[in-house]
Amino acid sequence: MNNLIDKARRLPVNAAVTTISISPVTLSIPDHERELELRITAPMSGRELPIILLSHGHGPSLYISSKDGYGPLASFLAEHGFVVIQPTHANSKVGGLAPDAPGGPLFWQERVQELTCILDQMETIDASVPALTGRIDHDRIAAVGHSLGSHTVSVLLGARLSDRGEAARDVDMRDPRVKVGVLLAGLGRGEDLDGPMGSRYPALRLDFSTLTTKTLVVSGDADVSPHLTTRGADWHADAFSDAPGGDSLLTLAGAKHGLGGIAGYDAKETDDEDPDRLGVTQRMVWAYLWSALNPGNAAWQDAISALENEATEFGKVDSK
């Protein structure tokens, strides 16, 4: 496969390291009978490792939308220096709650609470996983979400519900412990959620005006989602224009909702599987987070320059 990703290698990244994957790690959730199961993927060596909370989507496969999905993204980020923590959210078909339970089938509030639960119990994770004890930097935390996961991360970063018929619209679930976020193929402006999913699930309607946490928005220019909106692919980029914290937008040329294949290898969710496009997504997300959590580091600017000068066919970055 290496010959398939030669073009993506035009974008710089630090040297890969050997990783370990630890699963399941279980946490108790206050006021819930169900335990929260995690997969943690991390470098085998090194200290003061930054953390990424990776929030999965709500796709058709059984295991992609759980702690066991998103291998292409989780493995890459861990190989290049991050501790990646993946929960099995309440909406997961395997290990989640019954879809007809209160809040189902999307469980938008429970999903945010699960990420907060991880943050609340980082000391427990540190102490209970010997391979990580004393090696995690609890002050450098990022959150990355894809599709429905972007809704979860958006709320964690400060977005509110915009639908006036939703009782929880004014709930503020922002967590300042998360210093930076990435929204992958995310939901757009709530007022334009005019597809059938919009009327069925009003809690999906977001207002980004309160999202002030530093955020990268990643969208595909072929990601047309008529079940969500009639606006077209640019709807997925609304967090960049609307959120005060949305400082960068990566638009991937030809990308659909899978952004080259971040959710899994040869899976239903991989609607635009392309090793080069996947490689660009991996490297650009890594560079943004690496610079954001390492002040003064030039990885993000180097990646932008490489994309502009050596890999323009893959997309572009807009900044504000």
Notes on the structure:
It is globular and about 55 Å long. With 320 residues, the protein is α/β, with parallel strands linked by helices. The longest helix is centred in the last third of the chain and has 19 residues. The model has no long low-confidence stretch (mean pLDDT 93).
Taking pLDDT < 50 over at least 5 consecutive residues as the criterion, the unreliable ranges are none
Percentage of residues in DSSP E strands: 15-25%
Strand order, biggest sheet? 1-2-4-3-5-7-9-10-11
Helix/strand order? EEEHEHHEHEEHEEHEHHE
Largest sheet: 9 strands, mixed
Percent of residues in helices: 25-40%
- Give the end-to-end Cα distance, rounded to a whole number of Å: 37 Å
Structural class of the secondary structure composition? alpha/beta
Characteristics:
single chain, 320 residues, alpha/beta, nine-stranded mixed β-sheet, two-stranded antiparallel ribbon, 8 helices, 11 strands, 21% strand, globular
Care to give the gist of this entry?
The protein is of the alpha/beta class and 320 residues long. Helix content is 25%, strand content 21%.
Write the layout of secondary structure elements.
Blueprint (H helix, E strand, L loop, with lengths): L18 E9 L8 E8 L5 E7 L15 H9 L3 E5 L20 H13 L1 H7 L7 E11 L1 H10 L2 E2 L18 E5 L11 H5 L5 E2 L6 E7 L17 H5 L3 E7 L22 H19 L5 H12 L4 E5 L1
Helix pairs in contact: 1-7, 2-4, 7-8
